[in-house]
## 1
Amino acid sequence: MGSTSEFNRRDLVKRAAALGIVAVPAMSVLSACASGGGGDEDKVEKGKKSAKNPLAVNDSAGLDVVIFDGGFGDKYAKDAQALYVKSFPKADGKVKLSSTQKIQSTLQPRFNGGNPPDLVDNSGAEQMDFGTLVAKDQLTDLTPLLDAPSVDDPNKKVRDTLRPGVVEMGQFGGKETWILYYAYTVYGVWYSRSNLQKLDAEYPETWDDMLALCAKAKKKGVAGWTYPGKYPYYLPFSLYPFIAKIGGEEVLKKIDNLEPNAWKDPAVKAAFEAYYELYRKGYVLKGSPGLDHLQSQKAWAEGKALFIPNGSWVENESAKQIAKNPNFDLAVGAPSSLSSSDKMPYGTIWASGGEPYIVPRKARNAEGGMELLRIMLSKQSAQNFIKQVSSLTSLNGGTEGLKLPPGLASAQAALQKAGQNIVNPRLQDWYVALQKERIGVGALGEMMAGRMTPDEAITKIQKYADETRDDSSVKKYKR
């Protein structure tokens, strides 16, 4: 979620409209797609399959790519585009790469007309709903890409070079893989080591220590936490793994599966009450409910707050502010332990694929779109991405010989510490509107602004989850 700047994953009716992921419009655009123009007759002819061209790309065909212009920018994709043209020189001048922060608004007319791009980085606030895309048969199965030989080692399939769980994230209950998550994001509580040192403190591994540190900071005029109140679905980046740590990963699985009363689990209540205590004791930066992701990150980077829930794209997205304090020493912390009865150990963290790429079913040059992804998953492109945007990729490894910036080095260390204790909630992939508009804006944002108690937030979220489960127009997924 390349930042999903996402995530830009970011008033209620106004916000929902801005997100571009309200259920009805999402369904209408895809319904229109089903009846729009385009078809197999518009696809370019395949090229000749060979060792150098395992996907049988038409070497003289054009390629149309649309990138989400968020925290990762688009330079890494343009660099991969140059490698594509080097492999297929006849396509020089025919490869178009454009970027936008408004994915759905930009692509809706093209989907309606049956002439979508060949490759889309479907991220950001206007991210198209994946569940709907899959249900409406709007995506190309990426299995040919996954089974193709990797660029670096022809004896290895692309799927065998990816981090664990990346392929599964792109699947929706079947063997087909509809999405390739390019970035690999570590979510958690981000902070400056030097700012903690000013308080003679280290990252608090228990919640009691977290509250004590926030109290100490408050006396110095510094807030403990901030968050993007306009886009409160950032809160789950640290809240969801906190729930799993307290009650076990099974709690998140029940939530993902929309099971009855899943949100009424004691672990959810305990986690919500802990976060609400941050608000109740005045440990949240004043004005946070009115901040967007960039404003909250700026305040945090300027030292006005110690902690912010975020993803590993924050190092790149906040680079200019962080650079003003050369001793910032960015780091990420896993959720603090609530008590000794927590079901999972300290170090449990959320990490998963981010920056989701899709090849539309009606793409004219689907093979070219998949080939560009294959190139992006080479060590050369992966290292270029890492150096440019301070984020890992889904290529397993790829960091050899690189000096990682502080935040990324911390994220890598957090992954190593977590070991097998890495969680990956799927709610934000399967039910975008539920996660962002209803749970995020409609409940968590209200709770952290003090307009709703934890019990009220849980009741409302459970109602939202039940309504989604009972809505026959929404395709359901299980894990």
## 2
Amino acid sequence: MTLTFPPGFLWGAASAAYQVEGAAQEDGRTPSIWDTFSHTPGKVLAGDTGDVAVDHYHRFREDVRLMAELNLGAYRFSVSWSRVQPTGRGPAVQRGLDFYRSLVDELLGAGIQPVVTLYHWDLPQELENAGGWPERETAERFAEYAGIVAGALGDRVEFWTTLNEPWCSAFLGYGSGVHAPGRTERLAPLRAAHHLNLAHGLGAQALRAALPARAQIAISLNPAVVRPLSDKPEDLDAARRIDALANRVFTGPLLRGAYPSDLIKDTASITDWSFVRDGDLAVIKHPLDALGINYYTPSLVSAATDNDGSPARHDGHGASAHSPWPGSERVAFHQTPGERTEMGWTIDPTGLHDLLMRYSREAPGVPLYITENGAAFDDKPDAEGTVHDPRRIDYLQAHLAVAHQAIADGADLRGYFLWSLMDNFEWAYGYSKRFGAVYVDYPTQARVPKSSARWYARVARTGELPAA
């Protein structure tokens, strides 16, 4: 049976600046924390860096033509802060802004809506040198940066996302250290989470001041679907703990203007949360025009036992001797059953339905967008140069089917952004994992749409999901 999505449903694809742009030292751009991290031996698989990536900085016109061929209604991309404001302070570099002006113009000329993400993990290194996200000033600097970008693009861009997956920035960057800047601390992730929340609020204020009234302002979260291993009280409590650290540390202040009391209790041995100042929570609880949800796989947890060794080893976020779960290090993560992607992540679309219905309840009246969803597989061209990826088609089919079901169940879901448009630099995994609907031959930078890209193009053109 063919499933039809509502008229006006937005079909898009997404990318992030450091993963695709390259041109790392051109036109005034200075290092971000990901430049520093990727150039540090042992941090990224095979020593890969984003110096060249997929050269989107020079090939964006070709890439936009490709998007048009794939019938995309929207392209979600991030702005490189250090390309626009190299030190994270002071005046903008116009050459950096000109790239994004040109990209936006190219998109609009092709009938594709630009969706701007202001921050996708690439903090200017100079701000990290001053303390990074654990320091309040970083949030203040972000608001200034948001105003600069809004001033340059606000007459043409109507959909804005402040932050992408702040959980990763805070807890993987400052807790487990598997993401830039690679710090392994217990207090710093909690301070970083608050200052990222504050950055969203201050940034949203700056956007409101600079943008036309019609502009939409959102944030993209990667909420965890946390399931207990059993119904034992200790396993239920483990799920509650991880839900607090993965989800409610952000949605509490964003949606309700308060940090959860159980989170504060769970982390009492680490901090008294005195870094939250009077007035912060009111700033963070800035009205949202939309909420972005990124989903890949669920989590299965239990109370840790003495036999669990490194309890977080199956949390799906990379190997580290340090936990990204401050105050809940003794929660064990388990591999969920089922088919897995090349990331080792179980394919389970029911988790996406769970998230859409949860945030329909928790954020009533706020439209939802799936701002990332996709899978990495070991894609290779055949003898004719064609890239067949039937497993990705099956993955997208299943996840779009539950998205359609969520709409039928009352979720105000307005759009879907495939992760990702092209194969690219996959953070600490370098170029070893391919998420793209478009295959990239890295030595030549040739782009080859995979069979999933052609499949997705038909869905985007018709708004219809064919029967599996």
